[in-house]
Design goal:
The chain is an alpha+beta fold. Helix content is about 25%, strand content about 30%.
Length: about 375
């Protein structure tokens, strides 16, 4: 009996020791296994985190016009030069002389619109700063379907100071062509896009960068677009390859000569709207959009197909934002020289070539 009891006592002690060992084994497992799992799978999370930290300082918040009809007075942009050039979308937000840009560290700057391309819906701003972190457009890459991406933007105006902008993780679901001229989407842009499997195109998000998992620049987030046929929204980005030429031309000044460069060589007989047969709406505010109020019959404008309610957005590929700017641009063109006007007709852009001296005019969608 004693032997049996001793045996039983021994067995009990063994069980206690075994239980203690099992307990600590479970504790160690709870501590070490997740750590091992984190170490084993650390590449992806740390890579995302490094990319976010790397990209955030290159993203800016833009504030400008808005408020009318509950339109948001903000959007997103990305730094593309150490000297403060900013790539963003061309929108009503930029239609003001009081443009403000906030950097990721909270510093605020007044910005100037350097130039824009309405066909691509891109604009370049400039702030007075140096040594800024930026994207190099020449190093932008191309994405492929299935590629994991990050979209950075100040959607819904969440960030106002040194707060980080929002980041969304998604996948390039397709590379396709945005057929904006077929009435499906109301946009003048007609070209390749990345369709993103994430809800990226929200109010304020337009102009934000789309990057790869390693931070390489892929594209710029476009505006909010709704499919007129099925009432669905499109989350997309325009590839940088489609924008690079126009943007670099704006930055370097080769896209169009600046007004001050041409002021000294104004022609003796400048071109006027009256000679073209165009009557604009009354210029009643500081920046009245150059809408066509009337086209005189038999004039070059009439023969070129210009209509009432058209809006002139470019003269010889140079952006004009008001009746005054339109007149100034025409004053730098000799009346005997042909002129190319880019007309906004609804959501479509039409190029019109005409001359005051001749009777011929032509237009193309």
């Amino acid at each position: 009996m004693r032997r049996r009891l001793a045996s039983m006592t021994w067995d009990g002690a063994s069980c206690e020791r075994a239980g203690a060992v099992a307990f600590w084994a479970i504790v160690l497992a709870l501590v070490l296994v997740p750590a091992a799992a984190r170490a084993h799978g650390s590449a992806a999370p740390s890579l995302w985190h490094r990319t976010i930290e790397q990209v955030q300082p290159r993203v800016v918040k833009i504030y400008g016009a808005g408020g009318a009809q509950q339109m948001e007075p903000y959007q997103t942009g990305m730094l593309i030069s150490p000297e403060g050039h900013i790539l963003t979308v061309l929108s009503y937000v930029l239609d003001t002389d009081a443009l403000s840009v906030t950097l990721s560290d909270g510093r605020k700057f007044q910005a100037k619109l350097v130039g824009a391309d309405p066909r691509l819906e891109v604009a370049v701003l400039k702030i007075d700063a140096k040594g800024l972190p930026c994207f190099a457009l020449g190093k932008a890459t191309a994405g492929e379907p299935g590629e994991r991406v990050l979209a950075f933007s100040n959607l819904f105006g969440v960030a106002t100071g040194n707060e980080a902008v929002s980041v969304q993780k998604g996948v390039v679901s397709a590379k396709t062509h945005l057929e904006g001229r077929r009435g499906v989407y109301t946009t003048p842009y007609d070209g390749p896009i990345y369709v993103i499997d994430a809800v990226t195109n929200n109010p304020g998000a337009a102009g934000g960068p789309l990057v790869t998992q390693r931070g390489a620049l892929l594209g710029m987030l476009g505006k909010e677009l709704r499919n007129a046929m099925d009432d669905t929204w499109l989350s997309y980005a325009i590839p940088i390859a489609e924008l690079r030429g126009a943007v670099e031309g704006i930055v370097t000044g080769t896209a169009a000569k600046k007004p001050e460069e041409k002021a000294a060589s104004k022609p003796r007989q400048p071109l006027t709207l009256e000679q073209l047969g165009i009557v604009l709406v009354p210029d009643v505010v500081d920046r009245t959009p150059p809408y066509v109020d009337e086209v005189r019959p038999g004039t070059p404008a009439a023969k070129a197909g210009i209509r009432g309610d058209d809006m002139v957005v470019m003269v010889n590929r140079r952006l004009v934002r008001s009746c005054r700017e339109l007149g100034e641009e025409l004053s730098r063109i000799d009346r005997q020289s042909p002129v190319e006007l880019t007309i906004a007709r609804g959501q479509e852009l039409v190029e019109v070539k005409l001359s005051a001296e001749g009777s011929q005019g032509s237009s193309s969608p």
